[in-house]
From TrEMBL:
Biased composition (Basic residues): 451-463
Domain Transposase IS116/IS110/IS902 C-terminal: 219-302
A Pfam family this chain is assigned to: Transposase_20
A molecular-function term among this protein's GO annotations: transposase activity
Domain Transposase IS110-like N-terminal: 6-143
Bias kind Low complexity: ranges: 392-431, 441-450
GO biological processes: DNA transposition
Region named Disordered: 352-463
Biased composition regions of type Basic and acidic residues, renumbered to the chain: 368-388
Alphabetical list of InterPro entries matching this protein: Transp_IS110-like_N (IPR002525), Transpos_IS110 (IPR047650), Transposase_20 (IPR003346)
Stated name of the protein: Transposase IS116/IS110/IS902 family protein
Amino acid sequence: MKILALDLGKFNTMCCFFDTKTRKHSFLNATTDRNYLSTVFKKHKIDLVVMEACGPSGWINDLAESLGLQTFVCSTNEEAWKWSNVKRKTDKDDALKLARMATMSELKPVHMPSETHREFRSLVKYRKTLDWRINKIKCTIRAWFVNHGISIDRGDKAWHTGRALINSYRKPLTECSAKELWKGELDLELTQLDSLSTQLDGVVKKLEAIGKADPRIVRLRTIPGVGPRTAEILVACIDDSHRFENGRQVSAYFGLVPRQFQSGETDRNGRITKRGNPLARTILVECAWASLRYNPWSKGVYDRICGKQKTRKKKAGVALARKIAVIAWAMLRDEKDWDPVTMIRTTKSFGGTLPLDEETFRTMPPKENSDQRKSRLRREAREAEELTQRCAAKASPTTKSASKSKSKPTQVGKSTKQQSAKSQAKLQAKSITTPRSPIGSKSKQATTKTAKPRRARKPVSAA
């Protein structure tokens, strides 16, 4: 068996051709280029291509598979990649060690998603990058106003209703004096902020369009408290749900399991390992805190783990995040939506108690989150507008007949208006002639008594 081990680099790649029978090897320094590597794959007889998981391993793996070669992408986080007791480390040594470890089957493979899924994953990550840049610019602008003793609105009000106050201090840098240079910097930062906000809106619209067409994202959004951003990141990280055998592997993949130290009779657990995607782990914890408001099952699990102890709140939140990740993986594996009956069964299996009685919990519809509420309100407003347009279209041919039938009552209405105008003029004349007392109590009573019989004549004239 002939193995090609690749020690990938940004510009150059060290190729090691290793024969498992003769244990002989040879090296080739190749350029990390698509055309160059394709000629290397075609020129030599190769049974297996081994490479480490890194940035260019995606397109190199696709290139080798398109030529009919078997590939193996290994993880670099294992014990085989520790170089603590090695006196020399070079690219040739790395490639040779990679080939020998593959021969002994000591390497652990890494799941390689398709090209389409890799692009979707990069777009999800890029949205968070834009959000981080926007927050950084906002913090910089707030720091300038604080350093100059100018108070602006707190929170989101400063960037919506309070944006006019911030814009009043901006000034082109070429027109700023020596004491107003910060206003020129503010103008540059606000220009970047507007551009990044527009770009973020475009990325979010594209992600929403992808989420509507992907049934996996639609299925995960049925969980109360899980919004579109959490569903997108979970689908981007899990990808193929059948590559995990059980929920423990899913928990370890997201780094939400405790570290373990065992030696003899000592066996203690530490903090979580924090392995895997940090963005997915962060948003899972945020989703766990949000689900306490929308999901009664999450509230019950949180109360059971927390036990009304202040020191266990954060631990309960992380544990709830791990359960949400496992539930999302099980829903993708079984292709089933959120079902309260299933949650009742699983809660009873480990002796837990529901926050509500079983019948109420079974018949209670899931609460909608903020994104679902906004979409529902937009849909209801659209339907109401369409209904008014239909009613107006149906009532348009009957306007002529209605105008003819209302011609006579309009004349009566005019006579009543004239009579009421005359009576009001008389009342005003009397109020002018009568003297006003300093207290005003007797005059008010007199005017109210004289006004009562005149008000009673209005329905008589209209009849």
